[in-house]
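Sample intake sheet
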Amino acid sequence: MAPAVAGEFSGGGALEPSLCRPSDKIFGGLSGDVLKSSRNMVPKKIFFTKGVGVHKEKLASFEMALRVAGVAHCNLVLVSSIFPPGCKVISKEEGLKLLRPGEIVFAVYDRESNNEPNRLSAASVGVAIPADASVHGYLSEHHSFGETDEKAGEYAEDLAASMLATTLGIEFNPELDWDEREQIFKMSGKIVRTANITQSAVGNKDGLWTTVFAAAVFINDDHTAAESEKSTLLNGKTSLQEEVLSQALRGQEKTAGPDNGLIPRDNVQNRSPILQTRTAPPGKKNLV
């Protein structure tokens, strides 16, 4: 019988510990990076998007919907529905600029497809954000047939708000209409915002596949780190160039004397642009 290869079973017996043990050298070298990566796995930014696609093939109609939503160039990974503490909601335009082709992107999304002429379908993602930024919120996904944007969106929004309310200990009657419960949630002071993004569409009249798609897309934290590192490197390079020039000028001053006609360059400080934030108007609104 051929000898066992490391990592394989031989004759049903147990593997020797030496064959199963990962290299301490490899794990020792990766431990710091793994810990750093795990910290970066908590997103700091999120944006919402939606789309609809039509095609004779079901999968291709989904691709068309992703293109309309702007995320077809990424590998989406569906995750469960937690809104990270302190996560900032940014615009779709800003979010799309931060995505790279082929990037693995985590998202809470839903979709629905059908090839029945004139059949109404909808996909929606709701969000409930707590007033306390140190507490997590909730995202919910919902898809349906026969529901309008408004109805499907309210259902998804209700799901997210109800999950957050039970987590925060807000008492409410689940039998009440959403509008009444929404007021209870807002008046508690513990939920600062609820909203939804919804895409609905009527099935293609010729029986082509129609897919609706709605998503909450997380932005990986390494984007911010990469931009910061790039800025630091550029600033460092500029400082080095200025130092070399300064030394050269001082050397020329010593050689030519004070009347060499060289004019000392004034120190110029870089001004950082002021980032202005816009406060969203109060009340419920769709994340469009």
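Comment: Residues 1-28, 230-234, 252-283 have pLDDT under 50 and may be disordered. The two ends are 65 Å apart (CA to CA).
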